[in-house]
Design brief:
single chain; 8 helices; about 250 residues
């Protein structure tokens, strides 16, 4: 039964993303930039919300994401979660419609995700300078920026060594950094987990808010402070052992 749930979940994700792609492609060219960005971000939120609702309905997952609702009308900030799985961005964006997301270039070019991401004016990470400039400009408009300070999915529990990009953007934009902690009992879609490998179900995901840090003065010092804070907050968190292979490092 869990094998069926896994395949249904993957199929449902492909279907809802493809449906949105068909709409997003012409809207990118037809709508003015501001309107297209608004429609694009709301559209992705609704698509991801529907996808999570489907996972819950088939008994694959249980979610407690209500803590994120407190951020919906908050002013511009960098949202900085830990990153145990590929579902993390989906979890956050499903509750927050005014989020810009920094994405890997290959995901921006992906058939299922690319058109929607371009309509929403998500930010490519293939050029650090351009990425920082675009992120600062967007968050200064009062939007939220979703950026995982680990830079990749967690390979060293409870958290990888943190990069300085979160602090750099927060410093330049003069916005706070809101920490978010994602907990799960499942290694599904963690680093090194094969996509079609069946996990135990139902998988549990819950999110809680952490401390909101003021814009830093020293980016490197802030990264180390943030890393220590993540270690402290995640020390007793619900996190599975993550399979790591040589190919996933």
């Amino acid at each position: 039964m869990d094998a069926l749930r896994l395949r249904l979940g993957l199929l449902f994700f492909a279907v809802v993303c493809m449906d949105w792609t068909v709409l997003a492609m012409p809207l990118y060219w037809l709508l003015p930039r501001a309107a297209g960005t608004w429609v694009g971000r709301w559209g992705i939120t609704l698509v991801f919300r529907e996808y999570l609702r489907g996972l819950k309905w088939i008994g694959a997952c249980q979610f407690d994401l209500s803590a994120l609702d407190a951020l919906r009308d908050a002013p511009g900030m960098v949202i900085a979660p830990n990153h145990p799985s590929l579902l993390d961005a989906v979890l956050v964006i499903s509750r927050l419609p005014h989020v810009s997301c920094v994405m890997k270039a290959e995901l921006m070019d992906n058939l299922l995700l690319g058109a929607g991401a371009r309509l929403a004016r998500y930010i490519r990470n293939d050029s650090l300078r351009s990425m920082v400039q675009l992120a600062v400009a967007d968050v200064r408009k009062g939007n939220h920026l979703l950026l995982f300070p680990e830079g990749t999915r967690t390979t060293q529990l409870p958290v990888n060594r943190l990069q300085g990009t979160v602090g750099l953007i927060a410093k330049q934009a003069q916005v706070p950094v809101q920490t978010v902690f994602i907990e799960t009992n499942s290694p599904f879609m963690g680093k090194g987990w094969p996509l079609l490998r069946r996990p135990a179900m139902p998988m549990v995901y819950r999110v809680r808010l952490g401390r909101r840090f003021d814009p830093p003065d020293n980016v490197e010092a802030f990264a180390r402070t943030l890393e220590q804070y993540f270690h402290t907050e995640l020390a007793g968190a619900m996190l599975p052992d993550l399979p790591v292979t040589e190919h996933s490092r």
